[in-house]
Amino acid sequence: MRSAVKKPNTNNANKKPKFIFVTGGVMSGLGKGVVTSSTAKLLQLAGKKVSCIKIDPYVNYDAGTMNPVAHGEVFVTDDGGECDMDIGTYERFLDMALTKDHNITTGRVYLDVIRAEREGKYLGQCVQIIPHVTDAIKNRLRKTAEDEQLDIMVVECGGTVGDIESLPFLEAFRQMELEDGASNTLFIHVTLAPVLDVVGEQKTKPTQHSVQELRRIGIQPDILAVRCKTPLTSDTIRKISLFASIGQESVISCHDAPSIYKVPEVLESQGMLRVISHRLGLDNLAPKMAGWKAISSSFSKAEGAVRIAVVGKYVTLPDSYVSVYHALSHAAADIGKRVEVEWIDSERFEGAHKNNLEVLKSFNGILVPGGFGKRGSEGIINTANYARAENLPYLGICFGFQLAIVAFARNVCGLDNASSTELDVDTKDAVVDFMPEQRTAHDMGGTMRLGSHDITVISGTKASQVYGSTLIERRHRHRYEFNQSYRHIVEKAGLVLSAHSDNGKRIEILEIPDRKFYFAVQYHAEFHSRPGRPEQAFASFVRASTKNQSAFGRAMTKEAQ
Ligand code: GLN
Fold first, then answer.
1. Residue 103 shares a structural domain with residue 214
2. pLDDT over 90, % of the chain
């Protein structure tokens, strides 16, 4: 009699995507996103069609309504998703644009389930976490991977193993291993091996406990990626291997690297792909590293710093502007430099503290990123004006674009009370105003002007030099815009409106030609930047900034003379 056990399907035509699940243990902030992206990058460099999904177990539908200071930046995808900042990490590593389906939250899953229940799809049944919610999770993961015809999808689960919120997701992963088989699913667990004092040993107990917690849920990790300051010692590896019951070759040291872009090399130098290919039954996973190594080295070899002041509202958590930081670092690395960013709270430049603005002269350039609401806005307006008056390189993004217009209207056009209706609904001169279509939006979530839009750049302007093209596409996230009834007033005073969208309905770029570099964009240029291929506005800004010797630099040169 023939065996009833099914042989694995080797027919490529109905090949199913494989899944790698990345979970986190011990504590948050270990760099799971970088481990996820680096693993996916290695597979991509080995010729696999790969992508990443981030699961955020919170109940919000998306990240759009969350405070950036609590949760980090809201990353916007081409299709207008307001996503977790890890989506940005994946895009930068994989050099791919992802869709909003690559960020799954508890809110999105429950909405799927509740909608299906209302539509009568579960008629007669009692709707439960297992199997209905877990099925909805599996459906989303499989559908995205199959629609994109991937070889492998790397799925990162936010939070730490043991959190109540993440349980249904981990349960769904466990079921996928059962249903798809061990050769189609693999688990990477990211933990920490802390050292308590300078000469101390690497501690393995937190890793042991966290693996036990994962096993309690029914998941045995295949690879442990262990964060540590210096490489794991062979003793630590042996201990972890024994307690976690995984081979020593599967305990991977994730020690500090000179740049995040070096992490794929750190993992691969320890045979990461060998372990993955063995477990997933893939052969010949030999990544072609040369191109990527050239990019990652441009970060670790950079010499000399360009100092940028980022003046904004959410500076207590640099993750609020994480894509801005990376875009600056890409631009700096591209010209062989490091970027040094100082995060400055715009409230420092308000009211009686206007003199504080002097400090901005000690930087090579000034950047004002996105923001919302009145608090700190006067400080931003003062910053934008100071940069113009003192001829300091300035790059404004979104809020930094809108408030540069307010600053110009007040200080150059003599419209003393000019403002944005976001800051003062009754302003006499609303040079920045609510977009008309926003008036009908009542919900706060997902209702801004979001995602990628075509932009026409006007020839002969600085913008056309910066972009070398008259048509670009960039991502947006805003409710307010320049009020074009003030167009003639600002243009007459020397402001050049050098790009527009929606058939001229919206202004997208402003510049002041007689300044060294005074450039601001309504869109979020930062989401487009990649290591080795900086976004052009950032590249031009950083180049202009390196040419602008700061007061600090001038003082140093004098001292040396
Ligand atoms: N608050 C402004 C608006 O909604 C700017 C938004 C932003 O900087 N992302 O238009």
1. yes
2. 85
Domain limits for position 335: 302-552
Write down which residue in 296, 323, 353 finishes a domain: 296
Average the pLDDT over 442-454 and give the result: 88
- CA-nearest residue for atom 1, ligand 1, is 372
Distance 370 CA to ligand 1 centre (A): 6
Report in angstroms the alpha-carbon separations of 84 from 158, 231, 327, 520, 532: 10, 30, 17, 25, 23
H or E element that contains 384: helix 377-389
Pick the residue whose CA is nearest to atom 5 on ligand 1: 399
477 lines ligand 1 (CB under 6 A): yes
Residue nearest to atom 9 of ligand 1 (CA): 370
482 lines ligand 1 (CB under 6 A): no
Q: Is the CB of 422 under 6 A from ligand 1?
A: yes
Does 227 lie in the same domain as 355?
no
Going by alpha carbons, the residue nearest to atom 7 of ligand 1 is 370
Please indicate whether residue 26 or residue 471 has the higher confidence score (pLDDT): 471
Ligand 1: distance of its center to the CA of 544 in Å? 26
Q: Is the Cβ–Cβ distance between 109 and 62 less than 8 Å?
A: no
Q: Do 531 and 295 form a contact (C-beta atoms < 8 A)?
A: yes
Distance 409 CA to ligand 1 centre (A): 18
DSSP H or E stretch at residue 22 = strand 18-24
Give the per-residue pLDDT at 555: 54
Probe residue for ligand 1, chosen from 422, 431, 438, 481 as the CB with the greatest number of ligand atoms within 8 Å:
422
The total number of structural domains in the chain stands at 2
Q: Is residue 57 part of a domain?
A: yes
Whether residues 90 and 190 fall in one domain: yes
pLDDT at residue 28, as a whole number: 82
- Residue 449 pLDDT > 50: yes
Q: What is the CATH number of the domain that holds 513?
A: 3.40.50.880
Give Cα separations from 290 to 7, 287, 296, 409 (angstroms).
Answer: 38, 9, 10, 51
Contact 55, 157 (CB under 8 A): yes
Bridge partners of residue 305, in order along the sequence: 338
